[in-house]
Amino acid sequence: MNPPNFQLPDFVLSDLYKTQLVVINESTIESNLPQKKQSEAPVKPEFLGDNRKNICILVKDEQAVYLNDNSLQFLSAILAACKLNLGDVAIVNFRNTGSDFAALKSWLQPRYLLVFDIPAAALQLPFDLPNYQVQAYDQCSMLFAPSLSLMTDESREAKLEKSKLWLSLKNMFNI
Hints:
6 helices, about 35% helix, alpha/beta, five-stranded mixed beta sheet, Uracil-DNA Glycosylase, subunit E, about 15% strand
């Protein structure tokens, strides 16, 4: 009868032989170790604003660090209409963080989350929301909307999107 064949984990071996373990051929040992998959952890978000009122605005802008100038100007005007300013919010560019809702919740503690041009699935939320519908989830009011760039010109379509956003924001912030 043969004794059981088992292998001790690396951390146990290193604890057992703290000063006496000698590695003879490092490449042989490394090739026999299971390879860990390198997973990218979400980056703690850098944000524009001071987040004084725990309002997180999540955007996706491939060209800017946070948000392009036209979208920022439009967003500032919308915030002013809601009696808010950049000091009250945290603008996070999803392109830079890739963070899910749980990570954003732990880092920024948002009471309100405005999401532009990012699907709920990308935030690993257990539901999908139509644009402009205010939804409460995990002590946070959420609003999803299309890209801010669709609202920055003076076309008829842009005006329609602006009015839908404004009606939803009035509902969200009780204005």
